[in-house]
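The record is given unchanged here:
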Amino acid sequence: MGIDEKMIAEAELVIFALYPGAFVEWIEKNQQLLSPNTVITDVTGVKGEIVGRVQSILRPDVEFIAAHPMAGRERSGVEYADDRVFEGANFIVTPTKKNTKEAVELAKKLGEELGFSRISELTPAEHDEMIAFLSQLTHVIAVTLMTCNEKEGLEKYTGDSFRDLTRISKINDVMWSELFLLNREKLLEQMDAFSAEFERFRAALAVGEREKMQETMRKAGARRTLFDKK
C-alpha cells in the first residue's frame, strides 16, 4: 500500500504505529509530506534510542511528542484490533525539553479520548527503565519458560496458571527482538535482578527455609494487589 500524500498533508495530528527503525526511516524519507505545525506522536515501545533521534532530524515546524499506550495483545495484525484493550489501561507521555506545553497536553488529551484510565508523564530514560521491568522482562520470562522444558504432551495436563503466565510468549519476534536490542542495557539489568531474586528463592527451597519462602510469597501477594486494574 502506498502513502496517501493528500491525507497526510491534511492531518493536524499523526500517530505513528511503526517498528522503531521503520518510524525513523519514514521520518527521514517522508517528513516533507507533513504540513507545517503538524504534531506527530507514536506508540513505540522504547524511547531513549528513538525520541532524540527523531526530534534531531525533524523539521522545526513539526513537533514530535512521544507516547506509549500500555495496552496490547499477544497477537499481531489488524484483524486482532480491539479498542477495548484501552479500558482501564495506562498511557505514558514522554516529553523532552524540545516539546511545547501545548503538545504535551494534546498527547495527554489523546490518551483520555481513547479511554485510558491513568495518564502519566516520564522522561524517555525513565520510561525505558520502567518498561524493561514491566514489559520486556515479562516477555523474556514467558518465552524462556516455554522453551526450558520441551517434553511432548505437556499441553494435555496444564492448568490456567501456566496459560496465564505464558500467554505473551506468542510473541512478534521481529518487533520484540528490535525492542530488546534498543533497550539492551536496561533490560540486562532487570534480567540480572530477576536472576538474583530467583536464586534467593531457590536457595531457600534447597535448604528447607519454609518461612523465608512464605515471607517472599506474602510480599509478592501484597504487592500484586497494587497492580490490579481499578
Q: What stands out?
A: DSSP finds nine helices and six strands in the chain. Strands lie at 13-16, 39-42, 63-64, 66-70, 90-94, 118-121. The two ends are 40 Å apart (CA to CA).
